[in-house]
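Reviewers of the previous submission asked for a worked example of the structure-prediction workflow described in the proposal, so we include one complete record here. The input consisted solely of the amino acid sequence. No template or homolog information was supplied to the procedure at any stage.
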Amino acid sequence: MGRCGNSQTLSATLRKSLSALVGTFLWRGDKALGKRWWPQIKALLALHDKFDSDGDDLEDRANTPYPEQPDPGTYNHEMLYVQCFWRQAFAKAACVAEWLGEADAPQFAQKAKHISAAIEKVFGTDYGLAVWVDKNHNRTRISGTSRS
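From that input alone, the workflow returned the following structure tokens.
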């Protein structure tokens, strides 16, 4: 639990800044700090699969705590905003893993590619990318009609 409170809230907060954290390691060149934080980074990345209940490489939690986002109504299954954080976190983690000499680098790079492909498949539309999808992967409504 720690002084920051509930571990799920802490994990959500850290996930949002994970790409900044690993980018800092690369920018500073501080391998000792990177090695010290590497187990925590891997633990946070492992949350992705825990929250991908349908196995499509996208986080599925409708209760993701992003208060700056509007209420999506029934389109609350997957959110583009969250997926982009995950994609960047895995891509940056692959760079850090390679820099630290960790064996996880190819696995994390591959996961980033899978998330990118899933984003295009699920959120891609003829007008760009949808922001939210429902559990059936129907995209958010535009002008009162559902886009698929």
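The two ends are 42 Å apart (CA to CA). We consider this example representative of the routine output the project will generate in years two and three.
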